[in-house]
Target: Putative nrdI-like protein
Amino acid sequence: MKPLKLIFISNTGNTRNFAENLVNYAQEQNQKNPDYPLLSIEEISEQTDFGNETEPYFVSVPTYLSGGDGTGDNVKEVMTTILGEYLDYHDNAKQCLGIIGSGNKNFNIQYCLTAKRYSKRFNVPFLADFELRGNDKDVQRIYEDMVERTKEVNQ
Model:
């Protein structure tokens, strides 16, 4: 199986930390069993030159919103819009296999709302979620979800 790829945006370092933990976990799994794919990561920021994605990948996006209670049109995505623009660039969204969301469960209905909106907007499955920096169980669960989703698409 080809290496998996995760594209993400991180404003506070939580998503970056989670992505790095995913890379480490994938490497451990690959060392035990080469059938488990390695993982590469790419962080998107305001300085990123947009390119055309030609291979399948996953996206991880935190939730930063402004306004409203999470259910109305007055809720606006803040600080992560560049990732949405990257997905929207040319045919990049067509290569996306799944969206992974993160956030703070204290925000109730707004928890992972950006990822859920991306899922709907780009017609890509909402694959998984984790809170804040996630934990070891989240890393294991999400890596396995990524592997399974990749197998599913390749069948």
Remarks:
- Helices lie at 14-32, 81-88, 113-122, 136-154.
- The mean pLDDT is 91.
